[in-house]
Amino acid sequence: MTLTIDELVKRVGAWLGGEGPYADIVISSRIRLARNLDGFPFLSKSSDSDRSQVYRVLMESIAELELGEDTLVVDIEDADELDRQVLVERHLISRQHAEGEGTRGVAIANNEQCALMINEEDHLRIQGMRSGLQLACLFEEVNRIDNEIGQRVRYAFDRRWGYLTACPTNVGTGIRVSVMLHLPALKLTGQIEQMFRAAKEMHLAVRGLYGEGTDAVGDFFQVSNQTTLGQTEKDIVEEFASEIIPRIVKFELTAREMLEKDRSALLDDKIWRAWGTLENARTMSSDETLFLLSHLRMGVNMGRCKDIDLTRLNQLFLRSQPAHLQKLEGRRLDGEQRSVARARYLRSILDSHN
Amino acid sequence: MSLCQRCNKAQATVHLLDIIPESDEKRERHLCEQCAAEEGLTTQKHESINEILSSLIKQSSGAPQKQDLTCSQCGMTFREFRANGLLGCPNDYLAFEKALMPLIERAHNGGDRHVGKVPQGVGGEPPRYSKLAQLRRDLREAVDAEDYERAATIRDDIQDLEADDG
Ligand SMILES: [Zn+2]
Ligand SMILES: [Zn+2]
């Protein structure tokens, strides 16, 4: 049986499982590889026929891989706008892919831990996702898929420049390692700017929840590499797994300890105010929800709030987003209707656990 | 109201006092927001990769002839690339190689060559692009060295390879 987007909405993807090393601070690990086909122009100079050929060749190759029975292929050009938005909210495709033009698609596999985007900025983007900090096994999987597709198609590759990408910032390995972190204590103690500066010195990019060009809402930050040339894939992955991320995690943990020791009243106030608002509000925006859920998550992870678990909390994060809300309600809602529906949904989950 | 000293177009909103170390001389500078950002004097919090790239591109726009480079394969010009930050085809890396090099090195923290994995390729064959790119580089070297006999041979090889694809 094939999976549909409507069924997807009812589940929580495995990468949001709240498991894995450092899961209290590291929400998820992601790795993507950018690839293009030899013999075709990049997308900015592709004709409609080039695009369809690239789409067909890649979808045929992907169909030959054994990605599992729950593989979902979505023709994004034909897909309903709400369905596209659901995929963005689940981090399975980029906003750029949802809002783009022309023949394009995505193949989603392995319980949403793998997504192959076709005709986004490059012909192919192979992405893997995992809950917590699990980069080594993730790279192994992404690399295996890359090798298997690479045996079926010819990638644009140059000995000097490596894998050739539409944007020169990705050329070489075409790899982007990206780790989503929850850093509420660094924010509360005013040390987050220090983390930004350190990241910049290490040539890392720090972004918001939905990647490029988005603001950090609710203390969630994506840290990713910017260098794809002059370093091997393994070195980049290794540096994230054993140096960069553990260092940021330690920084956050120290800030949490400091709050517990010196500002425990302030800390509990943030946590229980968030709970009180989420449990009682009659209208609620997306941003406020993220902000409050962030504080609640901190309370759960620091053992100060035991009335909800991480799985349930992740479900709230996912389903309170605009497209998910509308899917669950089974109808289109305008902004104000969404705020009312969101508050009602949050109350229904938090009340039953009180 | 003063105009930006760098672009002479927008209103200067960023005012700086540079101290030149060797002479202790002070210099006032008045720039618009954009020029200040391009010179790295103000930091935008959430710069996207494309923004970083386009500022890199603009910074290295010194030599005007770079703008007129055109890729024979896809028709992309360097000027067009500078405007949107995306290349048109794999051959652009060769067609614009000299102009791209400093941008790439800056974007990659000094990295100037690939050291990562190499595709195993279809049936062990190297990608056609790789062969073509190598030949075009050899051709350029041969022409630079005024070795026209060798250049002619290489040109024939290129034409054969391109015809194969036809
Ligand atoms: Zn200016
Ligand atoms: Zn081209």
Describe this structure in words.
The complex is a heterodimer of chains A (354) and B (166). Chain A is α+β, with helices and mostly antiparallel strands and 354 residues long. Chain A folds into two domains: 5-256, Glutamine synthetase/guanido kinase, catalytic domain (Creatine Kinase, Chain A, domain 2), CATH 3.30.590.10; 264-351. In chain A, 47% of the residues lie in helices and 15% in strands. Chain A has 13 helices and ten strands. In chain A, strand 3 and strand 4 (114-118) form a beta hairpin. Chain A starts with a helix and ends with a helix. The model of chain A has no long low-confidence stretch (mean pLDDT 91). Chain B has helices at 33-38, 49-59, 78-84, 92-95, 97-107, 128-144, 148-165, and strands at 14-20, 25-31. In chain B, helix 6 packs antiparallel against helix 7. Residues 19-24, 43-49 and 55-64 of chain B have low confidence and may be disordered. The chains are: A alpha+beta (354), B mainly alpha (166). Chains A and B meet through helix 5, strand 6 and strand 7 of A and helix 2, helix 5 and helix 6 of B. One zinc ion is lined by residues 4, 6-7, 10, 31-32, 34-35 of chain B.
